[in-house]
Every structure is written in structure tokens, then in C-alpha cells.
Amino acid sequence: MHTKENTKxxxxxxxxxxxxxxxAVTENPEHRSFHKNLSNLDIKTVYTPDDIKDLAYDVDxxxxxxxxxVRGVHPTMYRGRLWTMRQFAGFGSAEETNKRxxxxxxxxxxxxxxxxxxxxxxxxxxxxxxxxxxxxxxGVAISSLVDMELLFHNIPLxxxxxxxxxxxxxxxIWAMYIANAENQGISKNKLGGTIQNDILKxxxxxxxxxxxxxxxMRLIIDTFEYGCKHVPKWNTISISGYHIREAGSTAVQELAxxxxxxxxxVKAAVKRGLDIDAFAPRLSFFFNAHNDFFEExxxxxxxxxxxxxxxxxxxxxxxxxxxxxxxxxxxxxxxxAQQPEINIVRVTMQGLAAxxxxxxxxxTNSMDEALALPSEKAVRIxxxxxxxIAEETGVTNTVDPLGGSYxxxxxxxxxxxxxxxxxxxxxQLGGVIPAIEKSFFQREIADSAYRYQKEIEExxxxxxxxxxxxxxxxxxxxxxxxxxxGEERQIHRLQKLRKDRDNSAVHRHLTDLRKAAEGTENLMPxxxxxxxxxxxxxxxxxxxxxVFGEYKESAIF
Amino acid sequence: MEKKIRVLVAKPGLDxxxxxxxxxxxxxxxxxxxxxxxxxxxxAEQIVNTAIQEDVDVIGLSLLSGAHMTLFLDVASxxxxxxxxxxxxxxxxxxxxxxIPRLKKAGIAEVFGPGTPVETIVTFVKxxxxx
Amino acid sequence: MTDLVExxxxxxxxxIARLITLAENNAEDAVQLMKQIHHxxxxxxxxxxxxxxxxxxxxxxxxLALEYRRQGKKVGxxxxxxxxxxxxxxxxxxxxxxxxxxxxxxxxxxxxxxRGMLGGLTSSVxxxxxxxxxxxxxxxxxxxxxxxxxEVDIVxxxxxxxxxxxxxxxxxxxxxxxxxxxxxxxxxxNKADTPGVEQTVAELEAMLDLAAHIExxxxxxxxxxxxxxxxxxxxxxxxxxxxxxxxxxxxxxRRRQRYEAELIEIIRKRLMDFIFDEDKLKGVVxxxxxxxxxKELDPYTAADxxxxxxxx
Lengths: 557, 131, 312
Fold this sequence. Notes:
By secondary structure, chain A is of the alpha/beta class.
């Protein structure tokens, strides 16, 4: 008969019983020899307490919501509030995108995220010669306050937060958003949202820069200053690693370069005289969620610890200044054009990693995004993916469920170590901006991208459907069709606008803007005046182009 | 005779995604070719003028922003106008299947979509160079 | 084919480009054409721009070209990048800095790989200079790689050699090869918008103080390509150097030096092509090398044998 005593597990007799049985391993050798993760780190067969023997919970992890915030920036995380489901969207004309926003909101997304087309990203109006062929292709075209009004038609801007992926002309687009809200009777201090506004990573990765580094930094600090005083619920920057990763960097590089950029912005703002505890709570981050499941989770955890420590070192006293809050997007570059439905599976894994990593906000890619912008069906499935993770998997029942895992804690520590090695190299080069000018980041990224490509072509890494498990007759899926008349409507709208508005007011405000840009005052009030008077994006940005000049990159392979 | 295949890798329009273009450029270099890279934000005129001055054998157009039907065709028609018919033109990026026939008709010899191994591109160039 | 030469002289862009390709590829037809081209040369001022990697040579050349264009001069630019000794390929990325010049009909830019096994300027560069000269370019700017032999070899081909440095390299002047220091007709300290300019200029002045007697003190110009500062001053110095050369008969001496170097290079190349040609002496050469390996022959005797066969 089994008594409680008989069924008690036996204690291990000797230390050798805690190690892997080497004899068994030799008899059944591993079928692959390549076990490097995506940052080129060698991963062991198994991790044990030995790998984290120096880990002290109170010092190195802390509770969620407590320094150094490894386990999460809030004590109850998703039990208190789920991450925001914020799907990046935008295409064609403002009215078309407005429809997509209503669709997403009706299907349960909880925050808006705006994708702009290339002419808008570069500060050109839809009828500029360089906009030829580009209208609305990879985002929505916004040339003036009129378009902003159409974009958010029937959307209560005091009840929903909006993230806008805009960098070079971010301050101008933000001014349009604020002006539109004001016209709706919503005051600035009620507005919540984010502008990406992270120019350093543009030089490094995304390449949608306009002006050279110095005036770009000035504009960014102008937005910090303005936000602190007038739009306190707004995140005036989303310091991004997503694009650095998409350009081909490793996870460690994504982590290191993003945080280095972040610290650069903090130092610049402090140099301007801003109080660190006034603006730091409104800094936010944006990371990629790529394929290596545990590496991504460790990356987010390491990021929180590094940021908390570095901000403390820079003199931040307010606990909110130490929080690294971030949005995550699943990796666009991991999506395949081959057998697109299986992208749903990839995105699920990646989304789960972001959630287990404690993201505040999440965008899940649609299955068709290696081919086109998302169709309604595809984006709905992407949203449902998040909803299933949130409602059905149980992972939200507890905070940082992987905390204490030998592997994850070891990986978190290792990624932190590797990050600090990069910090040192950047210091030696003179800091972030000198390193950019010396093409340090660009070279590191190009090398990683090339190495990854080689690994795939040599079949060291398998991409299902691409270099293994291929399908001969790959049946396509229906893709998004855009309204062909959108561009025509937009151009007419612009021409009408330029005729109907008070052109002398526009001229006056643009002249004032030019004077201010040549000086040192904060440009936000001037930008607001310009957009309120219906100066277009191109006209406003054009003034800044003339004063600040344009940035040109050098070729690094 | 020491003939090298000279390739122009070009980024037309406002698209800033250069990861693929750079990887292809490097692979072509590793295959013994001379690769001239235009950098970002090129107009059709800049691309064609560069191709003429550099007397390239191949022009590779890379575009991920969806503007290929306008911009690739601009380059192709400008080359036709200048009666340049001995240059191999290839394209790559995010180009839906249904657009490829029209591109080929305009003179783009082949379009390499996402997931194409660089070896495929290198081999195609070597086998289809016109001079 | 001769009408290719006529087209080149008429500044036809495609003809210029095509002839350059033929010359680079060592095509048989090229020799006949180059013979004709030579008669139409002699008007261009050739400016070699060399210096360490990262010193901003491309941006400087862009700014110079823009200034020369404002003066109505036609400009040719040769941008040289290293050819990989392993793959034989090259990434020619200098042009990326100059793309705004691509649509200016008064500018011709050609990117070239070094293609040489030993480094140094290949004979093709001499050819390209002659072609651009014959095509009417009044200014020819040559940007060299920045490492290797060609940065010193540039002095053989250029009328004016500009050596570009930048501040912040620590003991910049000491670390830079002695040869590079000696060939400079003009020193440029670029990126003068970054700290350390005065120090670098001072180091250069000190080094010039110690140099053996020379007739002309090498000027040191600070420039910032980014801020467009110092470019007109640099151009004045280039013009002054040309005038100095003409006054001191140095111009003819330089030209003589260039043609001598070119002649040597053409002969060397022909000789090497002959010797290593499968149908000519390659078999003999390979045999000799085998014998040298087996210590049956020494390299000098082998050379005697091979040269003997040629000179017979």
C-alpha cells in the first residue's frame, strides 16, 4: 500500500546525477552541429543553476514594477491591463485608411497606429515630382491638415491613443494631429499617443532621414520640451530597434544600438537644460519580435535592466524615468512570400515572445505582408492572434512566467554583457553620432545581414518553405487592392486647398518659421501656426530643408 | 582580354530599404563582378545616365515600396529612348506575381522576389549578360 | 571604329564610356583607338586626390566639381576602389556621394576597380585620363583608394597631387606613410568642422619645417566638405600650383614623367601579357617555375632564358 512516505521523491544521491548522461549522448549524437542563436551565441544543450549561480533576486531581478524592472515595469502587468493591440495601418488616401481604422477598432484593436506613404515620410506633398508612383503605396498620404481631418473622421481622439510612424517630418505631422484635435474641441493635455521621431536609427537603418543630425536632434528636443509643457500624456519619441533588426542586425545589436540611441537623446535633452525626470517618463521604445523565441524574451528583459541602471546613472530620480516601456512588432523580414499562410504561425510565436517579454503594446503582422499591404481578412487574423494569446492561453495570469528559468536568466545576463561591450566600442568612437558618421553601425548591420543570408543559403538555418519544405505550385492568396482614384482625389484636394486657404497667412507663418529655424527657439508653436493655416507638409518641410540642408549617406556594404 | 561584368545596382524612388540591394551587390562582387551602387533616392534619369557613363552590362533595380510599375517602367522606357538595348535589366524586391508579365514586356528580363537565393541571381546574370 | 574617336572628341557620352571599357579590358581595338586619341590630349589639368580612408575625399571631390562647374569648366572624375584579389570583383561605391552630378552633362564620372594584382595604378587609368582629356574635360579629378601603392603612384599621373587628412587621428602625421607626405603638392585637412584641426595643421607645418630644401612650401588648406568651407581657397591653390609649374617649367617635367610612367606601364603590360599568354610563353614559364621549386634552376637563370626567347 502506498503511504505518503513511500511516495516521497528520493533525494539525488550524487552530483553526477544532476548532469546529463554523457553515455546516452554519445550513443544518440545530436543531429545538427549548428546551435548558434541569431546573435551568433552558442547555445548549450541544457542550462542549470550553475549558469546563474551569481544571480541575486533582489539585486538583479527585483519584483515586477520594482528596480531594475527585469520582470516588468508594472506590478501586475497584464492582470492589471492587457497590452494595447495596436495594428500598424495605412494606405492610399486618408479616407480609405479611415475605413480601415474603423474596421480594426470594430474588431477589437485598442490603439491606432499610422503608416505613412514615402512622399509623406520624406516631407513631400502628394503632387511633388518625387512622389510620382509612390502615392499611398506603403502608407497613407498626408499632405495637409485636411487629410489629417479625414484620417481621423469620427474617431474620438480623447478616448483613443495614436502612434504615428514618422521621423524626418515628425514634428510637423504631430502639429497636424494636435491641430486636428484642437479643431475637434479636444485640448492638447488630453491627447495620448506616440510619434516615432527617432532620427538616429534613420541614419543607421530605416533611411527616411531628411536633415543632417544636428538640426534633426534640435527638432526632437523641441518636441520633448513642448510635450513636457503642453502635451503631457504624449510619448514624444519611440526609440526604435525594430528597423535596425529589419536591416539585418542581430538581436544583441538591436538591443545595444537602440539603447545607445536612447541614451544619446537623454544626454541631448539634458544638455538643452531639460529636467531628466520631466521628459524621461515619456520616452518609449519599439522592438522587433523575431524568430528565436527565448532570445527575444531575454532581449526585452535585459533591455529593462540596462535602461533602469543607465538612467539612474544619468541622475534620474523619478521611478517612472527608469521604466523602459515598449511597443513590439513581429518581424517583417521573417515573413515569406512562399506559402504565406504559414506566416500566421510565425507571427503567433513571435507575438507570444513579445507578451512573455512584457511588451506594453503589440502589432502582429499579417500573413500577406511579404507580398503587399494587409487585406482585411489577413489583418483580422493577425488581430485575432493577439486576442487568442490574451484570452485563451493563460499566459497573462502571472507576470514574467519565465523568470527564474536557467536558460532565460542566463541569456538575459549574456545579452546585457554583450550590450555593454558595444557601449564601450561606441564610446571609443566618440559616441553615437561620430559612430554613425564613421558608419560603424551600418557596417555591423551589413555584415550581420550578409552572414545571415549566407547561413540560409548554406542551409545552416532553415526557413520553412524557402530552403526546405518547399511547395512546387505555390498558390497565391488574394491581395489588397487599393482605390485607383485615390491619388487623383488627393491631388485635386491639394490644388483646391492651395486656392481656398488664406495664402497671405500661410506665407506669414512660413516666414516666421524660417526665422525661428535659423535661430534657436522651439519650433513647435510655429509649426502649429503653419498647419493651422493649412500650409502643406511639403511647404513647411521645404522651409526646414532650406535652412537645415539635406543629409547624404555613404555606401557601406 | 580582361573583361569584367559591370553591374549597376540602383534604388529608384523614395524607398529606403537597402538590405537586399547591398547583399546582392556584395554577392555579385564575390562572383568577380564590378558593382556600382547608386545609393538611395535615384530618379530614372540619374540611373540611366550613370548606366551610360559606367558602360554597365547589367542594371539591377531594387524596390520594396510598391512603386515599381511606375519607376521600373520609367527606367526601361528611358533606355529605349536612348536606344540602349545591350544592357540586361533585372529587378528585385516586393513585386506581386501579377505585375511581372508587364514588367517583362517592358524589357525587365527577370524579377527576383523575396526568398530568392543570391546564387540564383548571380547565375542568371552570368548566363544572360548580352555582351 | 574610328568614328568612335570622333564621337569621343565630340564629347559623346556613350562613346567615351565605350572607349574606356575597351581600354580597361585591354581589347585589341583599343590600342588603335588610343593611338589616335593621344593627339587630342594635353588640355586637361589632372588633379589627384589621395589620403586616408574616411577623410572625406569623395565629398571633397563633389564640392570641387560643383565649384568648377560654376566656373563653366567641364569635369571628369575617376573614382578608384580596390578590386578583391581573391574574387576579382569590386564594390565601386565612391559615386554614391556624387550622384547629384549624374544629370549634369558637363560632368563625366567613371568608377574603376584597381584590377591589378600588385596594386598601383594600372595602365588603364592613364588611358582613361587621355580619353577624358580628348573628350574636352578641362579638369580631371582622380580619387584613389587610400591604401596601397596607388596613392603614391598617383603622383606619376597627376599634375597636382592633393593629399587629404582629417583631424582626430592622434599622431596623424606620423602614422601616415612617409611617401604620402612627400608627394603632396597641397595638403588638405578636411572635416575641419571637427575638433583637432589646429593641431593637425600644426603637425603638418612642423613636418614641413623639417623637410629638405624645396623650392615651394606646400600649402595646407583646411576644408569642410560638409559645411562647404575652404573649397574656393583650395581651388585657388590648385590654380596657383599649375601656374607655378608652368613658370618653373615643372609642367613639362610632370608631363614627361607621366608619359614615361605610361610608356613603362604599357610595355610592362605587353611583356607580361606575352609571357603569360597560353599560346606564347606561359608553358615555358610554368616549366621554369617547376624547376625553380625543385632547385634545378634559380630565378635569375630562368629570367635569362625567358628574356632570351623574347629578345631573339
